[in-house]
Write a structure and sequence with these properties.
single chain, alpha+beta, 2 helices, 35% strand, globular
Length: 92
Amino acid sequence: MQDERCQRLIDKLEEVSGWKSRKKNEGFGVAITECFSSTVGQIVKVSKGTNGKIKIDQVWAVMDCGWYVNPDTIRAQVEGSVIMALGAATMA
């Protein structure tokens, strides 16, 4: 990667999720976006559920937002984006 900031984000996503050690019938989805001078990455771990449908096992989010004032606002924004994404993914 040419963008060092994005590469550090990807390295951190790999570290927290352990995607390289996935097991049979597990998968990981990855998304990275840049907006308002922030870089955000999310990983979703999925597996086969008992009914043959996809089961969402875990979600990780990593954000490089630069300087901030209130960490609770950042946390709320990231948690809200995960909830919105899960809602959109499960209703499609």
